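Rotation project, supervised by the postdoc (A.L.). Task for the rotation student: set up a whole-complex structure prediction and record inputs and outputs verbatim in this book. Inputs entered:
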Amino acid sequence: MKLLVKAPAKINLSLDVLNKRPDGYHEVEMIMTTIDLADRIELILEEKDIIKINSLNRFVPDDQRNLAYQAANLLKKKFDVKKGVTIKIEKNIPVAAGLAGGSSDAAAVLRGLNKLWDLRLTLDELAEIGAEIGSDVSFCVYGGTALATGRGEIIKQIPAPPICWVVLAKPFIGVSTADIYKKLDVSQINHPDTEQMIDCIRTGDYDEMCRNVGNVLEDVTLNLYPEVAQIKDQMKKFGADAVLMSGSGPTVFGLIEHDSRMNRVYNGLRGFCDQVFAVRMMGNRHTLD
Ligand SMILES: C[C@](O)(CO)[C@H](O)COP(=O)(O)OP(=O)(O)OC[C@H]1O[C@@H](n2ccc(N)nc2=O)[C@H](O)[C@@H]1O
Ligand SMILES: Nc1ncnc2c1ncn2[C@@H]1O[C@H](COP(=O)(O)OP(=O)(O)OP(=O)(O)O)[C@@H](O)[C@H]1O
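Outputs recorded:
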């Protein structure tokens, strides 16, 4: 038996850090949304008690370090599953890019194995299990658009943002999320207005949404990697309506309303940057059918 599951990337339309917690994590307030740039995960049921990872991408580990492996292993241990799985990952999301590629693979494996191993868990239960793997996994279990708080694992769904293009550009560097959080000075933060951002999304006010994007990790990454600042400048120059780094970076995204402008930004960036994509936001959350 085989199952194909889509694992979409996310962007952070807004990312605020409230404080550093005693456990070392940061208390965050983030508006996240899934985009139509996705890994494809094939799950093949194995009668033997094994978990095998199969990926052709040289930056993706094929052992216990893979978040998809960890997702399968966690379900296996928690529910004493005797069967196994081969997980084939077609990697389309850039790795270590601020787009939650690994987290989304893990979330897709949770949703898929729930079906393949007939576990009958709800999305809420899967999201709770996902939080044990990483802070972004719970959001990726649901997909759609949400306010994420706590260390990122407390998810409240909000409506889909107004329709627009998302052009993504990633320079040829990978960024360590832990490093960026470590270098953030929480006493020097210029906080974005998360409430205001939620309001703009609820009312479908595109211009106001563009004015309210913000990411407090951006300055940290920009200081370490000047090429990220250059990409931001290029995107603005080519006419994106809003430009922001996603997550801990280094991917930069631009929001663009009109097709002709999207083409200009996309083509302009392609001459300048390693990986460039033009996609839509996905809007809908995942279901368990
Ligand atoms: C930057 C974002 O991607 C934005 O969506 C997330 O906040 C990070 O999510 P993630 O990659 O799933 O993060 P995790 O794998 O849980 O944590 C990686 C490392 O990032 C730091 N970390 C992560 C989340 C958080 N709220 N505070 C932190 O300080 C911790 O040092 C942690 O060891
Ligand atoms: N399935 C996976 N896909 C990609 N990377 C993985 C996977 N599993 C483990 N990794 C490891 O995780 C690291 C971070 O990869 P990932 O693409 O998830 O980063 P990210 O997009 O910056 O994540 P986030 O936005 O959640 O911080 C990689 O360097 C890789 O070694």
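Student's summary: The first strand starts at residue 2 and ends at 20.
Supervisor addendum: The mean pLDDT is 96.
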